Amino acid sequence: MAPVTREECAKRDAEDPLAAFRGEFRLPEGVIYLDGNSLGALPAAVPGRVADLIEREWGEGLIASWNDAGWWDKPRELGAMLAPLLGAAGDEVVVGDGVSANIFKTLVAGLRLNPGRSVLLGEDGNFPTDLYITQGAAEITGAEERRAPARPDALEEALAGGDVAVLLLSHVDYRTGELRDMAAITELAHRHGALVVWDLCHSAGAVPVDLDGCGADFAVGCTYKYLNAGPGAPGFVYAARRHQPHLRQPLSGWHGHARPFDFEPDYRPADGASRLLSGSQPLVADAALEASLRVWSRVDMEQLRTKSLALTDLFITIAAPGGTGPGGLRLVTPAEPERRGSQVSLAHPDGYPIVQALIARGVIGDFRAPDVLRFGFTPLYLGYTEVFDAATALVEVVESGEWRDPRHSRRSQVT
Ligand SMILES: *Cc1c(COP(=O)(O)O)cnc(C)c1O
């Protein structure tokens, strides 16, 4: 590959059709932020929108805002705003609760939609909450939890027994950044009679997603990573329209009831994806998501994907050309663009202090045990020159050994 220069990167920044979005985010001076896959940056419109909710809708509107400010319908309204990013129809997505709770709801709903089958199949190495919630759902329902590697051949083997009710998979692996073929795996699962729950935590806002086009059954995801809605922002959940009339979820709260203000003594599910709601939602956090989704409504996901791949390619070319970098850094993320999310992961036994030394230089990535250095690439607020500088800083940190300074080895609670 031809050597990359900083001048070439500056030229690409000047020609970047997404460059104007940078002005819609607030980032501290001197920071190159490669951790938007863990907590997205602050959209400039969020503080104003949140203040408006607090001061006007709550402070002045008080209880009337449930009607006048559309609070009651906010989970549906935000779901409809999010749907185009997911390849879903507006009535197939609702925003509410967190990823963990929504995994539980969809796994149990899937089990009930697939009677006669009793296995919940997960993937080795998935994000811990996906594994733990599957265990919890199995315990409570009497289902059996199994795991397989997320490779098509291994999944096929695990599905072939004909007893898998639901398969739960991450669309993009949080640790390696590997992007799975949603269409092919969904088809494979369906061929073996299983339903699929896709976890979109690392793909919503990171890559184009086409849930309807892939024939997906269910999906869950968060809004605080690539979707930039802030710490602890609510999750979302998708149910394909064909499943909605028969779907019964276990957290059958009043927000998912057909006639909540009739205060009936017994549960009757609402129509559509609304039945996946449970109780009252954090409307202050919803306001932040709303402001962020207004930015997203103007984003062309194909343009975003093109830039994302160009940024990850650039980073790999400098930090780990051919799959290896200085000091034994090893590329973990697939080199093939079609198998890559918007992330680059590198492995190194001293990954933790290397990431800390980089952070001390203003380049923010993160570390995932046991040895993975993770860098997220968010095309809306990252430029080519920044990525060039970040990759160059990584090479310098490793080659100079500055990460060996003992202060970089002190562990914080969150890595
Ligand atoms: C971030 C992430 C989660 C987070 O779950 P919460 O309930 O929001 O804490 C779950 N699954 C995956 C794959 C993730 O990347």
From TrEMBL:
Origin species: Nocardiopsis suaedae
Modified residues annotated as N6-(pyridoxal phosphate)lysine in this record: 225
Entry-linked Gene3D superfamilies: Aspartate Aminotransferase, domain 1, Type I PLP-dependent aspartate aminotransferase-like (Major domain)
One term of GO molecular function: kynureninase activity
Required cofactor names: pyridoxal 5'-phosphate
Name this protein carries in UniProt: Kynureninase
Listed SUPFAM superfamilies: PLP-dependent transferases
Subunit structure: Homodimer.
Keyword vocabulary terms for this entry: Hydrolase, Pyridine nucleotide biosynthesis, Pyridoxal phosphate
Catalytic activity: L-kynurenine + H2O = anthranilate + L-alanine + H(+); 3-hydroxy-L-kynurenine + H2O = 3-hydroxyanthranilate + L-alanine + H(+)
Annotated EC: 3.7.1.3
Role according to the record: Catalyzes the cleavage of L-kynurenine (L-Kyn) and L-3-hydroxykynurenine (L-3OHKyn) into anthranilic acid (AA) and 3-hydroxyanthranilic acid (3-OHAA), respectively.
Pfam annotation, one family: KYNU_C
PANTHER family membership: KYNURENINASE
UniProt binding sites for pyridoxal 5'-phosphate: 100, 127-130, 199, 202, 224, 254
Family: Belongs to the kynureninase family.
Enzyme class: hydrolase
Database matches in InterPro entries: Kynureninase, PyrdxlP-dep_Trfase, PyrdxlP-dep_Trfase_major, PyrdxlP-dep_Trfase_small
Coiled coil: none
UniProt keyword annotation of Manganese present: no
Recorded metabolic or biological pathway in which this protein acts: Amino-acid degradation; L-kynurenine degradation; L-alanine and anthranilate from L-kynurenine: step 1/1; Cofactor biosynthesis; NAD(+) biosynthesis; quinolinate from L-kynurenine: step 2/3
Gene: kynU
